[in-house]
Amino acid sequence: MATVNPPMEAAQSDAPSRTGVWTWLTTTDHKKIGLLYGGSAIVFFVVGGIEALLIRVQLATPNGEFLSADAYNQMFTMHATTMVFLVVMPAAAAFTNYFLPLLIGARDVAFPRLNAFSYWVFLFGGLFLTSSFFLGGAPDGGWFGYAPLSSQLNEVVRMDYWALGLQIVGLASLLASVNFITTMFTMRAPGMTLMRMPVFAWMALVVNFLLLFSLPIITVGLIQVFLDRNLGTLFFDAANGGDPILWQHLFWLFGHPEVYILILPAMGIVSEVLPTFSRKPLFGRSFVIFSGIAIGFMGFGVWAHHMFTAGLGPVAEAAFALTTMFIAVPTGVKIFNWLGTVWGGSVRLATPMLFSLGFIAMFVIGGLSGVTHSVAPADWQQHDTYYVVAHFHYVLFGGAVLGLMAGMYYWWPKITGKLLDERLGKIHFWLILAGFNLTFAPMHILGLNGMPRRTYRYPEGLGFEFWNFLATLGSFLIAVSMLVLFWNMFRTWRRGEVAGPDPWDGRTLEWTISSPPPEHNFDRIPVVEHEDDFWYRKYSTADDGTSVAIDPPPDMEVEPEANIHLPSPSFYPVLTGSGMFVTLMGLVYVPWGLVAVGVGALITMWGLFGWSMEPITREDH
Amino acid sequence: MTTETLTPQDHGAPDMDNMRKIAMWAFLGSECLFFGSLITTFLVYRTRVGDGPSASDVFDIPFTSVSSFILLMSSLTMVLAHYSSVRKDWRQMRVWLLATALLGMVFLAGQVFEFTEFVDHGLTVTTSPFGSSFFVLTGFHGAHVAIGVLMLVATAFMSYSGRLSDGEGMNVEIIGLYWHFVDIVWIVIFTVVYLLQV
Amino acid sequence: MISVVWLALGRLPAFGGDRRSIRAGQSRRHRGSRVIERTLRRKRTFLVLLALAAMFVLAACAGPDRLGIDSVVDSDLPQNALDPAGPAARSIDNLWWLVFWIATVIFVVVEAALIFVVFRFRRRGGTDEPVKQVHGSTRLEIVWTIIPAVILAAIAVPTIATLFDLRAEPAPSENALQVEVTGHQWWWEFYYPEYDVTTANELHIPAGRPVYLTMTSADVIHSFWVPQLNGKRDLVPGRTTNLTLEADEPGVFFGQCAEFCGLAHADMRHRVFAETEADFEAWASAQAEPATLPAEGPAAAGWETFQISCASCHTVDGTSAEGDFAPNLTHFASRTTFGGATFANTEAHLREWLRDPIDLKPMRPDYNDLEAGRVLGMPNLGLTEVEIDGLIAFLDTLE
């Protein structure tokens, strides 16, 4: 335990330097790890975005020859894999890492070294997956890798990269989920009851339970695919009694909760942003929380709606059609409560608010097209067409990504201490909204007009030309809007307006501390008396129920605690993670790669041994 | 590690023991789904034997019953180890930890013997979906037992060399949680895989 | 391609129109509008550059069209699920429009509510107004839980009814035609047990009579889909699935594999020719005839080449060519397309194909393993031009 005596010595914690590479490699500070997650997610977002643009150029004209079929199949597989596992999930992890402790009034997560380890495992997993482009070709079996296509052609290592890469990225998420769940159950500030937890924390709790229970299922499926490919097992070999449908059950039993893993953090963010910019508490707070829990539970009971065309039989199809329809109920409850939050408020249309409203507007479309999928006979037409592509982009881009961007604009001043430029922010918002709709709205029509997804070319005369061209234009508009964002980030990083601790008149604990927060977060752990505690420290409630600013405003400076224990940096998480990377690389190239497997295992064991022997208890100064 | 020094904050101090217990429970919850998926796969494939031997051709129920009994007994010694650690009788705790590890190793030896017998009868991972799912399920269970044995031996060794002092009780309790879980999973596997051959 | 360029050019005058309206704004010399104007000008420049860049890139990357769909049908959207031509597709279509309109009403209501609350409660001036801290209303929560549940229940009833209806096998009285469908990477095999006819990629059916497909796959999962006749159904190795097709009237209906099946998934297409009962019977009996081998000329030389280079994979009924890894070619010349219904069956296309099939259609014949039954496409056979001439002449005799 490093000890800091704030605020004077806060800058002199035991790490030799606060900005060097070594500090970042060995950090166990949840905020630094959050930034690492966020930075990695942005880099992978650019990678996944370039893959998307290449796909769109190829499809802009009939009989496209810009990409070969082989390259195209790698692009769409890696685009989805990257966006799901290396962008949205780590972006959500970034916010959870950075803000969960701040929101619940803690100094770090329960297991800081495990937290660092999760990040490094994720990063090495992402690098492992992406490196496949340069090592014989990237995975090309689709992001849900249907067997036996994914277990076919074991001479080509591509799907080995996929099976192992998802496995390792999943391990990172699993460890993180154990960590976050423990954090939320044990480290809330005094008075922060579970029901007083901010809604973002609640959604993070649901997400991490979903991860905890869904990841092991895909783990088993991926083990089976990998063994089928490399050891000759017969799990999905139909000629010898294996059943490819088993893979679909295992994948979607993970894959559908995964959809909620991707969207719930954004819903949590929106549930923080809307009250702040409406100056009202979240309407029906407990209903929003319980509907999130309900979505989590129901998410495990709808998986076979991805398999309506697989021939499960009418009874199973009817059952899953019904469960799928009724998952729309808790989702609707959330949307109505968000509208209720804005109703009667004093709405400030700052960029985070615009993105949150955009989230609602787009997510409604994605939700409604989702209901049309639950109508199983209609899904027999829509399944695996561009209509589905449109649907899940409305949910995952219009929903998850816009929600995460709302969070980024909302919390950027807390992280950097600088405000993002509002004008550029609004330009970004309207450009991305226009580009997004231009790209994905035509895909509804394409799908219904008969264009299947994952087709690298289409002939002339099917009526696909116009809508595809529009979609390609839209995708470049999205790219341009992202340049605006990056320019905004770059420009305001150093020259931006100073934010101060509470730029938005916030309601939750993170706004009580300086921007950026000190390493130890809180000089004194707050004692929470209310949901939206900070608001009620700033405002009293008049007889007519309106908020009246307390005059003079409360002084947030408190006498710092004498001895604050912070986790020491550790080199072992990154070492252990790198050992696993070497092991994976070796596993792809079995048998001769077994040497690398051995070397990697030794490094991993060295890391784990050092980790368990490392004195966490440092003498107090 | 001690509870006092690990306290990250002065008040509202999270209880480190409690944290690690919650984390282990969460992890075991995840493990339930892991073994659940493996067992489900086995149930789908248990009659798909192709040209290879079927379950009744290869299983030796009396033998596996004995090794199951040995693993069950190891849960008893694990409880005794935990009990000793609560009483801070470290020497006895180490004895029971090593006894648990020994029983675990006997179980593993039995599994290795069983596997070689099956291979001799012509059942391998590549024989049939039944073979694939059987070996992968029991193999992953065996790997869990092996990791448990490593943790038991390591804890006993660390206790002997004085690297652990006050926190020992906690470590033993957490390993105990894991060990009992692995044991319960085996009871399910033994019942579903070996006994319920329809 | 030309249409795309035209389209992009056709968009340009719209930018000019924008410019005029911006000038009008400029005359007002309003500070806010200058900001907007700068933004718009920037945006406009971006868009023009974007469209130009897109056109250049696209001009380079569109390939030749070898299918010629326009010459087969006069519909603009021949693969349209919303243009049903049979009872199954029609009942799906009816259900779809019902759900579509319900969804549209909800969409309009919710989006209007969103826009309304934002404008109604937007902060005016720069000051925060005192806001009543409302925490919720249980009554409202109950209302907006029950209303969606009721709407969904209303959707569920016709959904389940249609589902069970469409999953039923055709009754024996309906005299359904049986066809066995096998999916291959990347072509379709159709077998008519009543007629003992095997064909590929082009399914002929009698109009007005149900056709009951019994489907499986030889390798990976495929999905058979003719949007105008019915929804899609997967073909799973080791399992059989069923689908009923019925066309109201004679016509040509397009479809393609809808489950990603590897490299040439996009080039695994099929056509359904719905014909009058008499035409269908005539077609089936012609297809049931074995091939007659040519006696002389280039076609006879082509048959010699065929035996050496093609017969281990392809079958020509009534001859020694009995390979069963690739499409049955007994009546190849009667088909309108080849290569997974991806290329119009013309001499020029055949010539390209025989010179190097992989140049036309992506395949992985390097990984073929005939003994293990694994076929991933047709290899480049290294044929000479003379051999190709012969083969084309021979294939032309297979009517």
Q: How would you describe this structure in keywords?
A:
heterotrimer, B: 198 residues, mainly alpha, 7 helices, 78% helix, C: 399 residues, alpha+beta, Immunoglobulin-like, 5-stranded mixed sheet, disordered N terminus
Short description:
Chain A has helices at residues 21-26, 30-59, 69-104, 112-131, 158-186, 199-230, 244-278, 285-298, 314-326, 328-342, 351-374, 376-382, 386-416, 422-448, 465-495, 533-538, 572-588, 594-613; strands spanning 2-4, 539-541, 547-549, 564-566. By secondary structure, chain A is mainly alpha-helical. Chain C has helices at residues 2-27, 31-61, 87-120, 138-167, 277-288, 297-309, 347-355, 357-360, 385-397, and strands at residues 177-184, 187-192, 197-200, 202-206, 211-217, 222-224, 233-235, 241-245, 251-256, 269-275, 337-338, 343-344.
How confident is the prediction overall: mean pLDDT of chain B?
A: 88
Total of DSSP H or I helical runs spanning 4+ residues of chain B: 7
Radius of gyration of chain B: 19 Å
Main sheet: strands, sense, barrel of chain A: 2 strands, antiparallel
Number of strands of chain A: 4
What multimeric state do the chains show? heterotrimer
- Largest sheet descriptor of chain B: none
Total count of domains of chain A: 2
Q: Given the C-alpha coordinates, what overall shape of chain B results? A: elongated
Shape of chain A: globular
First-last Cα distance of chain B? 51 Å
Helix count of chain A equals: 18
Look at the structure and give the CATH class of chain B. Answer: Mainly Alpha
Task: Write the CATH homologous superfamily of chain B.
Answer: Cytochrome c oxidase, subunit III, four-helix bundle
Fraction in helix of chain A: 55-70%
Indicate the proportion of strand residues of chain A.
under 5%
Uncertain stretches of chain B: 1-13
* Assigned CATH architecture of chain B: Up-down Bundle
Distance between the termini of chain A: 10 Å
